[in-house]
Amino acid sequence: MEFAVGQVVVYGGHGSGRVVARETRAASPEPQEVVVVELAATLTVTLPIALAHEQLRAVVNETELANVRTTLLRSAHGATSLARRNGRFRGSAHLALVTGSLSSLPAPID
User: Fold this and answer.
1) Three-state SS for 64?
2) The domain containing residue 41 runs over which residues?
3) Is residue 75 part of a domain?
4) What pTM value is reported for the model?
5) Of 23, 31, 78, 84, which is the most exposed, with the fewest CB atoms less than 10 Å away?
6) Is the domain of 38 the same as that of 79?
7) Count: domains in the chain
8) What is the C-alpha to C-alpha distance for residues 49 and 39, in angstroms, rounded to an integer?
9) By C-alpha distance, which of 40, 4, 30 is closest to 19?
């Protein structure tokens, strides 16, 4: 990910934001490249570039969103209780949203 100024990114647990700056700051012992993300009108986060690569992700594209919809709408076979399915989806869906790993969403329980 390049982290270009103006790029929309997702910071897990905090939501989406826009890259407002990418700069080099003096730090000891060496200068450090950082990314500044505006999450809300009054909230900005400054992350070293290495941490930004770990913590920020791109917004999902249409293909990824279609895969999520397919997974969530796939009909379950058998007499699976809705409560059981919801409990399983809730934890893993939250993890998928925070980590950005949409492929970790489970298939419906049979």
Assistant:
1) helix
2) 8-58
3) yes
4) 0.60
5) 78
6) no
7) 2
8) 17
9) 4
How do residues 62-102 score in pLDDT, each as one tens digit?
Answer: 888 888 778 877 754 333 445 455 555 555 665 565 566 65
At 1 the three-state DSSP class reads: coil
The single residue listed with the structure tokens 């003096």 is: 26
CA distance 73 to 61: 18
Amino acid (one-letter) located at 16:
S
- Cα–Cα distance measured from residue 77 to residue 109, given in angstroms and rounded to the nearest whole number: 8
> What tokens does 22 get?
């990418």
Same domain, 29 and 44: yes
CA atoms within 13 A on the CB side of 42: 0
Domain assignment of residue 19, yes or no: yes
Amino acid at 110: D
pLDDT in tens, 1-14: 899 999 999 998 88
